[in-house]
Amino acid sequence: MARIAGVNLPNNKRIEIALGYLYGIGLPLAQKVLAQTKIDPNIRTADLTEEQVNRLREFIEKTYKVEGDLRREVMMNIRRMREIGSYRGSRHAKHLPVRGQRTKTNSRTVRGNVRRTMGSGRKPAAQKT
Question: I need a labelling partner for 83 at 20 to 30 A (CA). Which of 39, 90, 101, 115 fits?
């Protein structure tokens, strides 16, 4: 079982897909990392040698910000926006869409405005009232 940046990667998946389980690494970045470390992207995680896992772990931890460090940085950026009173910070604070999406029809459940159709709350006809 490969463990990188405190995350256990699934054994039965290809390493290219398994690297996506790390916060901050998607498919394109995983492909780039595997190309630079000269590891076959089609190999399963369980089939990696210890040397390949160590090479991968060192490269990722040295080159990229992943998992805890990245999460902390994102949270600090959001906190900074809220403290300076920016528009984006106020949208984050209210749990509303930040990037200009409409809110009349989408994000209704986030706002607590759940509209239902006429028959959605009805009891079955056989049930006593």
Answer: 101
